[in-house]
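SAMPLE LOG
Freezer: B-3
Tube label: C17
Construct: single chain, 70 aa
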Amino acid sequence: MNCKTLEKRTLEAVRFLGIEATIEKLEAYPEITAYCIMRTPGLVIDEKVVVAGSVPTVDKIKELLLVHQG
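STRUCTURE (predicted):
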């Protein structure tokens, strides 16, 4: 459930900011652990893990996206 919530919030943040983004939901354990994420959900921006093991708010996701855009 947390993974679906994170996906929904991320989509909402991207739409709000009007940025172009490719969003992939990885579900296979080897793909997830390749990012060294041991607790899901995880959020990766530009190949960098920015959240693992929790579901940030939409505002926090927007902040993370803006930081990594610049």
